[in-house]
Design a protein that fits this description.
- The protein is 82% helix and 0% strand.
- By secondary structure, the chain is mostly helical.
- It has a domain of 38 residues.
Length: 62
């Protein structure tokens, strides 16, 4: 019985996902989530600070 191309792709994708899933630990996942949250907070704070600095400067153009 011949497998269709889509069946082969799904099988390969399933195997890849299972191998990745087995290699990721809970600690790695938690570290990734915390790093992403910290990066988001720093980015937000920086954009707010720059916005306030621009507002205080009065949008002066050189």
């Amino acid at each position: 019985m011949l497998m269709k191309i889509n069946d082969i792709r799904i099988s390969a994708l399933g195997g890849t996902i299972c191998s990745i899933w087995a290699s990721i630990s809970l600690g790695d996942l938690l570290q990734t989530v915390l790093t992403a949250a910290l990066g988001t907070a720093v980015s937000f704070a920086t954009s707010r600070l720059l916005g306030r600095m621009n507002k205080k400067a009065g949008h002066r153009k050189p």
